[in-house]
Give the backbone structure.
Amino acid sequence: MSHETIYQALYVQGRGTLREELTTLKAVRSGRVARRPRSGLPVRVGKPWLDGAHFSRRPAEATDRAVPGHWEGDLVIGGNGRSALITLVERTSRFCLIARLPELRTSPLVVAQLTTMIQALPAELFRSLTWDQGSEMANHRRFTMAANCPVFFCDPHSPWQRGSNENLNGLIRDFYPKGTNFADLNDTDVAQMQQLLNTRPRMTLDWQTPAERLEQLMTVALTT
């Protein structure tokens, strides 16, 4: 039985109480009561920045999370449709970096902000970045040149390919629900949220915090 079969059974089960609960309760963080199945669609045309940077080319070591330094990223869009947060999460430690964007979400501004964000950590901790197919990363090669960190793009309609980032963005929505204008925040607000998320124990980390796990990874990297 595939994962997709299980997911669909949970979402569309026609009998019992689950379907009724799904219509009245927030069964998942996003609030959805239906699930879009996996898509076998090919990469969309008209996105030349995807050439040579498809998800299938991402290093195999990024998949099992054994090697630190592989990141996932995305934008969380504000209620006015223009303000946004850039969110990054490291796949092994779940350590996150979050920053505000100016009003415009142009690719040069996004790439410049990303380059600034990663300067807070050693360059050795940036081996790859996985993103969706948004045009805000059309200039991703500039980021790769500045950070020596290649960017890879998910397949269409495949958010699970950057699932850690999807989870992070959901946690951010617990702080700032949909409709929040991120232009009303300041950098201190964002930094405090980032610290709370990085010092929150995680079951998937054996109840360590992302900050603790990242510190361990950095210590090992420096002594090997």
About this structure: The mean pLDDT is 85. The first strand starts at residue 70 and ends at 77.
